[in-house]
Specification:
homodimer, alpha+beta, 4-stranded antiparallel sheet, 13 strands, DNA-binding
Chain lengths: 244, 244
DNA sequence: CGTTGTGTTGATATTAATCAACAAGTGTGG
DNA sequence: CCACACTTGTTGATTAATATCAACACAACG
């Protein structure tokens, strides 16, 4: 759909990384059309299979990534194996924020992930030539920071029900990237209960019980572990905000 | 000391916001010397008294801020009053990240805070002219994001003792901005127990008890609520990492 | 000299973690 | 095609960590 859209907009583009250009975050959108050739030369589209990681916490940060399809989990580990999922990356998500030239988190494919990889090295020169690109990156980093702050509120101050409700609301909102909430209330959750638990700072058991509770309250219907229907959207939003 | 340093480097500078230029984050460092006049024209140094807020969550984001002295708490509130402190800003800290042109968090002075305020409006033109400035901002946003991710691990996966130890280690490290850990292990905590509790996702009682515990373990000595000595730095670091 | 705000400590309650059993789905090899 | 193991998710019983409720100490301040 996205590639169809850009194809429609300009059918004779130099076909650089058509597969890489997700609508909002993509670096391509910030670069003049004929300069995309540079990207074409260095961008490498990749497919990452379920469970495979393509970015490791602490590893030398040589590349940026732009997710174009699928879902990745981003997490950090403690030495004893405790895990905190700091976010899920879907189509359009830009990855590669680094600290001291090393990735700050590990990224692993939840399902089959398609992404576009390009070297950090060239990006600085490109940023100098196209400040719009840097603006885009700054925007992306700011958005992520805001999301991180919301997650902190969730982790520090919300109870199990509020956490799960918040997660579902956020996941639903992030569905069609940037677009309004889908008319249909059907949600597909590609990640496991363990992923959700590690994202929300809970255990799998509590996640499972909390799903059951929201179901008993008539707010959700669970078709299968990874397919659910939001029956009462307002009630879910209220639960997320802690108003119930 | 810092202003003395820059004064030494160029004693005849146009005296723009000498008070505003903290070493690492400051936007000034990214701008050619004689262009600082622009900053001089629009930068407003402010003093914010204890308890006063200078940035409100949800308010229109018209300014950036650069803390030069003192400590500010950054927090978000839930509708029922629950509070999550997402960070403390000290000298050098850059503030003003926005979401949809509104501030994402509230900033309040913990003690007397001195800061430099400048309009967002002009900054975009300035960024176009000086990409180094934008690089600086991007760097700042990235650093904050990494810090946010560490806090998520703390909030989602650490116990009370690990949380408090992590906080103290981080606070000590942030002491002399960018510099190595202070030789002295004396820490000054300008914020209240409630601030610490809301930062670590705990209650004041648990914070107090956990301080007492670290004291009983011979890791800390508490002179007064806001003055303590780290007696066994390695033990504190071990506690922070969850290795005990 | 009382009043108020902040911090500490004690007793009890509550949420969510842990431990445990089991159900359902998936893939493998006989 | 059917045991079989293995993974994932669910539910139940119990425990443990932290929140809550309550009392009090102490300093700052009018």
């Amino acid at each position: 759909m996205l590639s169809a859209q850009s194809a429609r907009a300009s059918p004779v583009q130099p076909a650089p990384c058509r597969s890489c250009c997700a609508p909002q975050f993509s670096i391509c959108a910030a670069i003049p059309h004929d300069e995309l050739v540079w990207i074409a030369a260095v961008a490498v589209p990749c497919d990452v299979k379920e469970g495979q990681s393509f970015m490791q916490e602490g590893e030398r940060a040589d590349h940026f990534f732009n997710v174009t399809e699928g879902t990745a989990r981003l997490f950090k580990l403690l030495s004893d194996g405790r895990r905190q999922v700091v976010g899920f990356a879907r189509a359009g998500h830009f990855l590669g924020i680094a600290h001291n030239d090393c990735y700050a988190v590990t990224a692993e494919a939840v399902d089959t992930v398609r992404l576009c990889r390009f070297p950090r090295a060239g990006i600085h020169g490109l940023m100098r030539r196209f400040p719009a690109l840097q603006t885009r990156l700054l925007q992306s980093a700011s958005d992520e920071l805001v999301a991180a702050q919301e997650l902190m509120v969730l982790l520090g101050r919300k109870n199990a029900r509020e956490r799960l409700a918040s997660f579902l609301v956020g996941w639903a909102a992030g569905g069609p990237p940037g677009g309004p909430l889908a008319a249909s209330e059907v949600l597909h959750l590609p990640m496991t209960r363990a992923d959700i638990a590690d994202y929300l700072g809970m255990t799998v058991e509590t996640v499972s019980r909390t799903f059951a509770r929201l179901k008993n309250e008539g707010i959700l219907a669970l078709h299968s572990p990874d397919e659910l229907v939001v029956l009462r959207r307002e009630a879910l939003a209220a639960a997320a905000a802690g108003e119930a």
